[in-house]
Amino acid sequence: MIPTEFFQKLFALINPMQAAVKFRKLDNMELNSPAAIHFVAIKDWLSDGVPLVTPSAKGIFIDWNLNNATANGSWKFQGKPINLSAIRQPTLNVCGLRDSMNQFDVAAAMARKISNAKLLTPDTGHGACGNDCRLQDS
User: Fold this and answer.
1) Which of 32, 86, 87, 90 is the most buried (most CB within 10 A)?
2) What tens digit of pLDDT does each residue of 96-108 get?
3) CA–CA distance, 27 with 65 (Å, rounded to integer)
C-alpha cells in the first residue's frame, strides 16, 4: 500500500510554491465566507485520500499519465485490454485546463473515447472549479 501522504509529497514537488500561494489566498479571505468554506472543504477532501495498492498507483502514474494508455488504446485491467468505445454508460470527466499534475490531453482522452461522455473543463488546476466550470460535449 502506498499512503496518501506519499502522493501529497509528490504533488508538492511539482510546484513547491503552490501550497504557499494557495494558503496566502485563504489568509486574505473572510473566515466564514463561502470562498473560505469552499477552500477548506476541498482541502479536507483532498487530504482524506485512501492508500493505493502498488499496481493501481503504477496504472495511474505510469500507464495513464506517462504512457497515455487511455488515448493510445493500451490501457489494461487485470491483464485485459480496456475498450473505452464499448462503454455505453453516461460518464462525466472533469479535466482542469491549467492542471499541472495531469496534462489536459491525457485527462480528456477518456472522454474522447467514450461515446456517451461529457467533458467538464474548469479553467483551473488540479482541484475544485468553483463557478468556473463549463460542460462540453466530448
Assistant:
1) 87
2) 888 877 788 888 8
3) 33
